[in-house]
Amino acid sequence: MHQSKQIIVIALVVLLMGVLLAQPIKGLVKQDEEMEQAQPTGNAGAELVNLESVSAVAKQGLDAGLVQEIAAVEAALSTSEGTERLNLLKELAGHWDDVEKSAPLGFSYEEIAKIEPSLENWMKAGDAFTAAYENLQDTVVAPVLVHHAQEAYQSALELDADNLDAKTGLGTAIVNGGGAPMQGIAMLMEVVQEEPKNLKANMNLGLFSMRSRQFDKAVDRFKTVVEVKPSAEAWFYLATSYENIGLKADAIKAFQESKAIAADPSLSQFIDRKVDELSK
């Protein structure tokens, strides 16, 4: 399942690249005083986005037997409390994890963490919300998931103020929230200052550099990422960054590295066209 998930993600990289470059991050190139503008509330549509609503969407397309199992757990949850409720939530989270449905998984772990607060539970909630909003363009649902991710990572940091994964998740969510991006960037910079080769922080700093069209900075970030853990996605972003600063030979090499790892026909065809264009 992991391999098929990777292929889907890599195929989406091509489709989302235009969106990524067309949406500069608000405030990244503005003066410091503009950082004090209003924070995102995350409340718009929040009452419509909850475990029940995302579960209804996530069930679509699932095996009928599994849907019945999940529905039975949800029905039992409505009248449960204490240890029984905690166990049912963990069972529900297990179902959503098995089928890689990040949004209901996030809400499930959020409820678990409220009953059983721990760094692990809050991190699982934050990571699930992050995975959900990163793969969603819905203008109502995505901001709510970002807000929940922020709250989960903040709760994690209250338990361990030095946790780099929580700092990375919170910093990334703050930038994606759109209200005070420099605050989030500063948090990610703190992470790489403490751990220069931190994979997630460098990846997100690279993406944010691309969105602000600072491709030279993006190159440095993605070079670190492919050094630590090469992936088709990271090589593709590095290639695109090279292309945008005119380093065609480096772009071609990076595109070919992406193609070799992904082994995805759609991405391979796209890269072949890009290499052909850059070779002229």
Description of the structure:
With 280 residues, the protein is mostly helical. It folds into two domains: 1-26 and 210-280, Serine Threonine Protein Phosphatase 5, Tetratricopeptide repeat, CATH 1.25.40; 45-177, Tetratricopeptide repeat domain (Serine Threonine Protein Phosphatase 5, Tetratricopeptide repeat). Helix content is 74%, strand content 0%. The protein has 14 helices and no strands. The protein has helices at 2-22, 51-58, 64-77, 82-98, 102-115, 119-134, 141-159, 164-177, 181-194, 199-211, 215-228, 232-244, 248-262, 265-279. α5 (102-115) runs antiparallel to α6 (119-134), α6 (119-134) runs antiparallel to α7 (141-159) and α12 (232-244) runs antiparallel to α13 (248-262).
